[in-house]
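Researcher: For the annotation table, I need structure tokens for Fructose-1,6-bisphosphatase class 1. Please keep the output clean. Sequence:
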Amino acid sequence: MQKTLDDNLAALAGSPLADTAACVGSLAAAAIELHRLIQNGGAEGGAEATGIGNSGGDLQKALDVAADRLFVEAARRSPVSFYGSEEQDEAVPMAPAGTLALAIDPLDGSSNIETNVSIGTIFSILPAGGEHAGADTVFRQPGRRQLAAGFFVYGPQLLLVLSFGQGTATYAFRPATGRFEVLIEAMAIPETAKEFAVNASNQRHWEAPMRRYIDDCLAGKDGPRGRDFNMRWVASAVADAYRIFLRGGVYLYPGDTRKGYSSGRIRLTYEANPIAFLAENAGGAASDGLNPILDIVPEGLHQRTPVVFGSRDEVLEVARYAADPDNLGERFSAFERPLAPL
Ligand SMILES: O=P(O)(O)OC[C@H]1O[C@](O)(COP(=O)(O)O)[C@@H](O)[C@@H]1O
Ligand SMILES: [Mg+2]
Ligand SMILES: [Mg+2]
């Protein structure tokens, strides 16, 4: 009998993670509904922009709003005291007795909604309470404090990549049983990368170390890296992440000189932190180019961060380029001074 998500969540009943498991269960039910909505042509108005901008300045699409509505309801069915979403400017207060805070990107890869390419949902579950009990403090916790994190991929299959801090697993939704079944019990990101994922159209806006890193990859086996690299860019972080978790690689969204992009495009609390948590628990790594993402103390719900995640050796390599901008081969990155154990 194939093991299911429900089995694994039920096994956490009565444990310190019981509330977190209950929250994951509600999110999974909402993701099944959202996948059905997407398969039926998406939200009323589909990919049309609503004309309303979200906190990040992106025009909200009807499906962004519909997804957010589904996950607000799921959070209300869970022991959640604060809901922080890409599609809501402020943290939304919920059950005062809730023990959890949920940071969420209801629809990841919005630019792909109308192109029928995989899109997703990314979530991070934090403890709420103590010095992190208020709307303005609850999402200012470093990613290391996450109780669980995950992302759903709405693609040819509906997948869930999930971690409670003890390894990372993948589940696949099976319409025949109506359940998420275990697809990969323990994901292990290959340590070395043969592929990089970056939006190369931004190259002229990058800082020198970043440009040099990509140039050296593109120079292939006759270049300083001594081997060939392939490139992929889906422009849905969840799809690029899942591919990298399976076969290795590195995803990069650096800061650049465009207005508003000094810290890149990816949001720390509901995109970088959950993906970093999943990556580290699958033997990979995630940095802001130099230092571990999970050690950053967020200053706000919608803060952006440069991000590099994937195969551990390659994330370290990128940090070496960043730590030695003049290519003197002398200075070290924070990564080279052993970090907190993963
Ligand atoms: O359009 P760009 O600059 O290539 O950026 C694509 C990146 O931005 C994102 O779409 C941002 O996420 P949202 O779609 O949730 O805003 C990532 O999924 C993706 O990796
Ligand atoms: Mg996103
Ligand atoms: Mg989004």
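Researcher: And a one-line annotation?
Model: Residues 330-334, 336-342 have pLDDT under 50 and may be disordered.
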